[in-house]
Design goal:
Blueprint (H helix, E strand, L loop, with lengths): L1 H10 L6 H14 L4 E8 L8 H17 L3 E8 L7 E2 L1 H12 L5 H17 L6 H9 L2 H12 L4 H5 L8 E6 L4 E6 L1 H13 L13 E4 L6 E2 L4 E7 L4 H8 L2 E4 L8 E5 L1
Parallel strand pairs: 1-2
Antiparallel strand pairs: 2-10, 3-6, 4-8, 5-7, 5-9, 6-8
Helix pairs in contact: 2-3
Length: 267
């Protein structure tokens, strides 16, 4: 039903209608019967609503509507002006998520996950501190619990023990054109280029190639040297023109600041 309504919104230029976005998101979330909801609302150039004020308005609408319908809710407005973690792509992101569950993932992905988990546990009435949650990752308990959940949902236990998630074979580095600090990443364009390479669907009937990926090897505000590897592409075939367009998504300047991971809490 939501797919049909979304297609109707696409045909009537109402994709960015905040009330309709709220209805689409909450109809699915509330149907699960969750005790509490925490929304991760993105801001930044890779977000659906890049402007912080727009993200704040959506977050407030989601929280207020959920509460009016009897569900405890809050939202964190978080940054999407660069990829979260190191990987973009289906197989690569599953690999990274499994690594995070074992306490081995990127620091920013783990930090964001812990912030969301701490918030939702408090809202649900069973508050868990950050050290307790972090220990669940370090000890492997979170990963084991995920495997139990996945098996109950129909996943094959043998696959979970040794997941097969190969990446595309053609590796191409994205190098810094000059020395300085990483000042900008066109995150939305990175996603569109990955879609063009086969990592997403441009048409409903198209197939997704889960191995096409990008590894993000730096962060905004970080000092880089000329020729330093900023990212690495994993493609199915050689495509120098496409690789050059990926490189154009990265801007190095004399000065740059790192954005916060979490801008604010709404609720």
């Amino acid at each position: 039903a939501d797919r049909k309504l979304y297609a109707l919104r696409d045909g009537t230029a109402t994709i960015d209608s905040l009330p309709l976005i709220t209805g689409s998101i909450l109809s699915k979330k509330l149907a699960t019967g969750a005790a509490a909801l925490v929304f991760d609302v993105k801001a930044g150039n890779g977000a659906f609503l890049p402007a912080l004020d727009d993200a704040r308005e959506l977050a407030r609408m989601l929280v207020d509507t959920a509460r009016a319908l009897g569900t405890a809710a809050s939202a964190l407005i978080t940054d999407m002006s660069q990829p979260t973690g190191e990987w973009v792509g289906h197989a690569a992101e599953v690999r990274e998520a499994l690594a995070c569950l074992a306490g081995e993932g990127p620091e920013d992905t783990a930090e964001l996950t812990l912030a969301l988990a701490e918030e939702v546990s408090r809202l649900a009435g069973t508050p868990l501190s950050r050290p307790v949650l972090a220990e669940a990752l370090r000890s492997g308990r979170a990963r084991r619990r995920f495997f139990e959940w996945a098996a109950l949902a129909g996943a094959e236990p043998e696959w979970l023990d040794e997941p097969s998630l190969p990446l595309a074979p053609v590796e191409r580095p994205i190098l810094a054109a000059r020395s300085g600090r990483l000042a900008g990443v066109d995150t939305r364009q990175l996603g569109l280029l990955l879609l063009e390479a086969g990592a997403g669907r441009a048409r409903p009937e198209a197939k997704i190639d889960p191995g096409i990926s990008l590894r993000y090897l730096t962060r905004l505000g970080r000092e880089v040297a000329a020729g330093e590897e900023l990212a690495r592409l994993y493609l199915r075939r050689e495509d120098p023109a496409l690789t050059a367009r990926f490189a154009d998504c990265f801007t190095v300047a004399d000065e740059a600041a790192a954005p916060p991971l979490v801008y604010e809490r709404v609720g």
